[in-house]
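Give me the fold.
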Amino acid sequence: MSAVFTVDPGSGVPLYLQLIEQVKRAVALGTLGAGEQLPTVKALALDLTVNPNTVARAYRELERDKVIETSPGRGSFVRSEDGAADVRHAIEDVGASVLANAVREARSLGLERDTVRTLFERALERWFAGSGPEDK
């Protein structure tokens, strides 16, 4: 497997959610390709030094989100059916998570809603300026 997963118990984000985001990001970026096998629950739990139930929960959620499919006795694999839609969904999930974390951090800093909106608009202008009408 080409993707390397890590967890940070001190981040405040549940470990299973960290794993879900990392798998979705790896799928979205192509680090994990369609049909590629994920490590077994036991192997990944040992590698990350976490409870196997944590990995199993992440895999169940990923299967529910149609990012992976699990075959009893064979393992868990990145879904290959309707790959483009799955990748787009994975990218949007990762983006939503990143933006939610940024908004939560801004709020914890005491920034007001209008200030956050202004900062977000500035960031959009900076990163999407001139890239096309669909991005404005």
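Strands lie at 68-71, 75-78.
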